[in-house]
Amino acid sequence: MNNKNNSLWRAKRGMGVFTTLALIVILALSALPNLYPNTKVISVKNPEGALALVQVERLLESQGFPVQGGHFDTQAQRLLLTLEKPNNSAAAAGVLRQHLADADVKVQTQATTPSWMQSLGLAPMKLGLDLGGGVLFVLQVDTDQAMAQRIKSIAADANTLRRTHGVRGVSIDTGDHALVLRSPLRSAAQGEQLQEQLQQLYPQLHVTREQKGDFVYYTLHYPAAQQQLFAREDMAQALATLRKRIEELGITEAVVQRQGEQGIRIELPGVQDPAEAKRIIGATAQLSFHGLQEQGGKRVLTQEGDRVAIDAKAIFTGNDITGAQAGRDEWGQAMVQLQLSSQGGDKINRFSRAHIGEPMATLYSEYVQGADDNVHKREEVISIATINEALGTRFSITGLGSWQRAQDLALVLRSGSLEAPIRIIKEQTMSPSLGEQNINNGLNALLLGFALTLGFMLFWYRRLGVVANLALMVNVVSLLGLMSLLPGVVLTLPGIAGLVLTIGMAVDTNVIIFERIKEELRLGRTRLQALQRGYQHAMSSIIDANLTTFISALVLVGVGYGPVKGFAITLALGIATSVFSGVLVSKYLSYLLFNWAKEPAKHPTKEFHHGE
Questions:
Q1: DSSP 137
Q2: Assessment of whether the complete model's pTM goes beyond 0.90
Q3: Which residues, including other chains, have CB under 8 Å from residue 179's CB and lie 6 or more apart?
Q4: pLDDT tens-digit readout, 61-85
Q5: Is residue 160 within 8 Å of 146, Cβ to Cβ?
């Protein structure tokens, strides 16, 4: 019976060893690409034709940016150049933009890992702003301004209803998040009719009626609960739109998260050109298409400074646009080719069929920050075209001026416009050279702590110290592999502090186990019994100690951001790998290292503890 139990125990232990080794190999492979950090390359594409590689290299070298190498990417149709000092890529890209006005110049991240690693989907861990350099933006979403625009839109519909139904004597005014209809007592019925029609269009509106003198005032407003719902929707829409814009910029390691009630925090690691990112992220451009009116309507300035009257109600807006690409027309002028959704296509098709031979205006609007630091909406008619035939889901707009404006507008339209205006209230740029210095300082601190810990454990616990040190090495490799493997995990400078703390916590696990083994040996247990009971009885203390810290780390991950979140993520993952290496790995190493056939010496604890 004992032989059967021993065989079963050995089989379970063999399966456990195999599973542990397989997990270590997977995590070690995931950590291996960190030996091949990504580099920066300059990507150049000229819409007018192919640029010669030699021409661009000479231009950069003449400006003090020696080129290490370059080639033409036939698939992307772009020149890719690597500088001798990749940290200067942003400055070099700025020089190219000045000398090559129409060229599309970007700074991109290029992998240096071997092809077999890339085929397995392995990549080095992502670096935060303080290590890899980049840009930090903190934006404020003006939900109050968005609510004011909703009220103005309702006022435009009210004016349309008033003209359509011939309502006279009723004035329309917009107040503090409310629409006010003022009707003389003699025409109170018409005022009542207008407010009922508005309530049919906007059933969430509440109405209060008040008589002052010879006038009746109807105040239409959204209740507080509805306004809070709109504010939440505006924040969610802003977050989604900004994420799409960042994806359009080709930044795959960005962090976009809510900060406070009306704030959004955007971290763009690796971005060396903050001007381009700021121009796209902060853009609030919107397009809408309107018919012209001879009488009444909404009067807007054109690019030439003239005023035209347009129908306040749009034929369709940017929300109906599903695709947008910058291009040039037959005269070489910048334009944007639009693709509409089926619903948007139906709208423009119905309107164009009914108004062939009539003009249609393209209204460009954006929120701008004035000298008084207040945000207001600026609108401009960028083109007026005659409808010659029925339009469908594809057509183009012109009158955009520069090629850069066409590119930016196309990107914004593809990613979606912002319902609520945003304002950049904080901008911070971290240079790659400073990030490199932080990496060196952090690694030096990590190596120093690692070396001191290894030396102490080897000195104090002798042979078990060897087990602890091997388990500690497995722990560090496993943690690096796990951070490289999991999406969304970014290594920051506080994260390196978390790595150092993880080393100490991993050693704590071994200390608890080893001290328990010593107690069992003092009670006269054999070496095998002492190890088995030591690991078994120490588990409750280890789990209790690590679980409380793990819960605290998860709370910090949920509520923290920036450096706090970077530290918490590393700490949480480090606790998991510490328990794995400190319990499983060290247990199997202990069985492997010691010869169980021999009984311990007369004073067995001397081989485990230097002090006895």
A1: E
A2: no
A3: 151, 154, 155, 158, 172, 173, 198, 219, 220, 221
A4: 888 888 888 887 777 778 888 888 7
A5: no
